Amino acid sequence: MSPLITDLAYILVVASVVTIIFKRLRQPLVLGYIVAGFLAGPHMPYTPSVSSFEGIEEWSQMGVIFLMFTLGLEFSFKKILKMGMQPILTAIMIMCCMIGVGGMTASLFGWTSMDRLFLGGMLSMSSTTIIYKAFDDLGLRTKRFASNVISVLIIEDILGILLMVMLSALAVSRTFQGTELIKSLLQLGFFLMLWFIVGIYVLPLLLRKTKKYINSETLLVVSVGLCFLLAVIATKVGYSPAFGAFMMGSILAETLEAENIEKSVGSLRDLFGAVFFVSVGMMVDPSVLKEYWLPVLVLTFAVVLGQMFFGSLSYFATSGNVQTAVRSGFSMVQIGEFAFIIAGLGNELGVTSEFLYPVVVAVSIITTFLTPYAIKLSPKAANRIEKSMSSELQSLINRGKTFSVNRRYERLRLTKGLVWKRLLSAILFQTAAYLTISIALALFSYATILPLFQHIVGEKYVNIVGLIITLLLLSPCVRAIAVKKNHSKEVKYLISSGKMSAFLVRLLLFAKVLLGFVIVYNVVSSVLPLWWVWEVLISVAALVFMIMSRLVKYISIRMERTFKQNLRLREQQASLSYGRKLRGRDLQIARVKIPQHSRWGGKSLAQLHFGKTDRIHIAAIIRAGHRINIPGGSHRIYPGDILEVVAGNEAIESLRQRSEQELMQPQERNKDNHNLTIISLRLNESSPLIGKTLQDIDFRMRYHCMVVGVENEEGHLGTIQAKRQFAQNDIVWIVGEEADLSMLSMVI
Question: Do 345 and 489 sit in the same domain of this protein?
Fold first, then answer.
């Protein structure tokens, strides 16, 4: 048998035993996986070890891919954009502070400048997968602060790619090149926008067209295939496969099948995620810990205390809430997979010391152990910090909040400034999106269409045919760049609001048309090189055709409308049609899903009395696709039900938190006092059943049991008819609970 399979079998057996023990001790599963990895690893002499660690690394890479994929399914880019600049500013502040902490800590031990620089990069980013798993194990994933933390971690992962590019450039040239940074930033933005736009435009259409052919099995295959497809593409263009998997998850998060996909890949995520954390545990080397125990200890304190202080401070600077800031900062007290990637990059480039990688791995292991305890400690720390704050400081914070609110209302009153902001943001976003598509289509045409037509029409006419097809492909995008928003109400308002505003608006519109001309001219000059005058004339003619053509206009409008519909499809389905009338009011309509193993399962609405405890009204119960509108107090709810509730925002949030907390513990779920059993009773001559039928004796109502059959003298057991009379020596088989059967056996 292949060593890869035997190694996988061994680590899964070890992981299952260790995690059961940790579950029994009520410890996070992540810790159990790491301990299991250490026991199965090559550095533990008293237990068997895996034969090929390289194979386990491949399995763990799949675990990271699945974890990032499911993370993207839950936290789409649209949700992050709705949060504004807060997570971006928080991530930048934390990373800058921790890079400084790492550099200063390395300088204490006299390490080289490259060691200091790479170590700062390793310590600057917390582990998305470890924190995500810790939140999941501790039941905190639905908390508001957890959502903020995940958003910041996603931004850190994106900025981490830029950081790796900067470190590579510095390692090669030993100098900082701003042009390389700008180029990398533009390249990253290009791929992010291209993948997102194409994915949102294509995938929802594909899933809708093939919906009748897709069941749970094919949905799993399709979603995993798409995940690995973008992971491979991301690797080909120089990014990590985990980044591509996250992007595909964020794209599929906007489709109607997002929840079904998440359920389908949940088991794969748990399995391969476990393998990933086990592989991390295998990296623990006691000899490295013994030799470099002081740097490991100092770096561990630097990570934990640095993230607690600078992380909490950064969250507080952007949110102004002590509870949220402290709980968020304490959640990020570890380093993870990105630290390993940056450490491997330093080794690959040969610019960092050999001891740095195992030291960072040891710090990652220790901080991963400490993460759940830091998360549990954060509420007490936040309460203590709030109590220790002076009244003057609290009033200063409140004044700061009031000042920011007043500034917000003041900005709203500045009508012209608000119109300018709305117009510029719309134009910038649309221009960036259509420019990205234009570049991608042009590159696609150069790589495929031109070589294809070279064999069809020959080299003499290939440039003319290729130019025509390329311009036709680009025409909807170029037209949108040149004339989109030119006749909007914002433009009309600003033109009529003063000469200076009118001049600036017309200058902006001219710049848009000029950009469209530049795109067309670059295509013309690269495909059909002529005298520059002819190139300009052809470009102007092509641009005029694109602007004036009704067909191009129709296609452009249809493309944008389809994209917007796909982007809002899931949101529109979640936003109930009859609930839209309540937008902007105190009451809202929302959906709350009852989790598995809920203590509410089987209880009636009258027993739960949500109206009194949570101040909400149940408008409907959705169960397996069927609706129970305006349910009464006698209606019961079950795990998996979706409640449509009408209440205020705070009441809805309170109900969601209660639904996640009111769960049966494992010992409660395994304890079953109502097991069914089956017995056989022989009827003697004194039995009250003799001469009576099932219709005469209602077993269900009188004895809470059910007669399932009668055995005759020959030993044949068959069903009993309702009108058959019981006779002496009949052997009656009865199903019921043990207590009811005991009472019945004494009666008959």
Answer: no
Q: How many residues does the chain have?
A: 748
The rounded distance, in Å, linking the Cα atoms of 248 and 255 is 11
Rounded Cα–Cα distance for residues 455 and 25 (Å): 70
Joined tokens for residue 283: 């990296």
Phi, psi of 682 (to 5 degrees): -90, 130
DSSP state, residue 390? -
CA–CA gap between residue 572 and residue 561 (Å, rounded): 15
Confidence of residue 361 (pLDDT cuts 50, 70, 90): confident
Mean pLDDT of the chain: 78
From 406, 482, 405, select the one nearest 438 (Cα to Cα).
482
- Which CATH number fits the domain that encloses residue 144? 1.20.1530.20
**681 and 615 housed in the same domain:** no
pLDDT tens string 387-439? 777 666 666 555 555 444 444 444 444 566 777 777 888 888 888 888 888 88
User: Distance between CA 717 and CA 406 in Å, rounded?
Assistant: 82
User: Average pLDDT of 232-259?
Assistant: 79
**Tokens, residue 514:** 């000029």
Longest CA pairwise span in the chain (Å): 117
Separation of alpha carbons 590 and 654, rounded Å:
12
What value does the mean pLDDT take over residues 194-214?
Answer: 80
Query: In sequence order, which ranges of 389-449 are alpha helices (DSSP H)?
Result: 391-413, 415-444
**Domain boundary, last residue among 643, 670, 697:** 670
622 & 701 share domain:
no
Pairwise CA distance, residues 570 & 578, whole Å: 16
Residue 302 CB coordination number (10 Å)? 21
3 state DSSP class of 658: helix
pLDDT one-digit tens code per residue, 58-97: 777 787 788 778 877 776 666 666 666 788 888 889 888 9
Distances (CA, A) of 139 to 146, 266, 303, 562: 10, 16, 24, 38
In the three-class reduction of DSSP (H, G, I as helix; E, B as strand; rest coil), residue 720 is classed as: coil
C-alpha 330/C-alpha 604 separation (Å) is 40
- Domain residues for the domain of 551 are 415-570
As a three-state string, the secondary structure of 84-132 is CCHHHHHHHHHHHHHHHHHHHHHHHCCCCHHHHHHHHHHHCCCCHHHHH
Confidence of residue 253 (pLDDT cuts 50, 70, 90): confident
Contact 243, 72 (CB under 8 A): no
Cβ contact 731:679 at 8 Å: no
User: What is the value of pTM for the model shown?
Assistant: 0.67
**Which residue in 125, 155, 135, 131 sits closest to 306, CA to CA?**
125
Could you give the CA distance from residue 597 to residue 663 in angstroms, rounded to a whole number? Answer: 6
Contacts of 504 (CB under 8 A, 6+ apart): 494
Final residue before a domain boundary, out of 570, 587, 612 = 570
Same domain, 564 and 635: no
Same-domain check for residues 659 and 683: no
For 677, the token pair is 């059993």
Establish if 733 belongs to a structural domain. yes
pLDDT for position 402 = 46
- Using a 10 angstrom Cβ sphere, with 0-12 exposed, 13-18 middle and 19 or more buried, the burial of residue 581 is exposed
* Assigned token pair, 299: 């770096």
User: H helices of 445-531, where?
Assistant: 450-456, 462-483, 489-495, 499-527
User: Can you give the pLDDT at residue 413?
Assistant: 45
Token output for 83: 């949060």
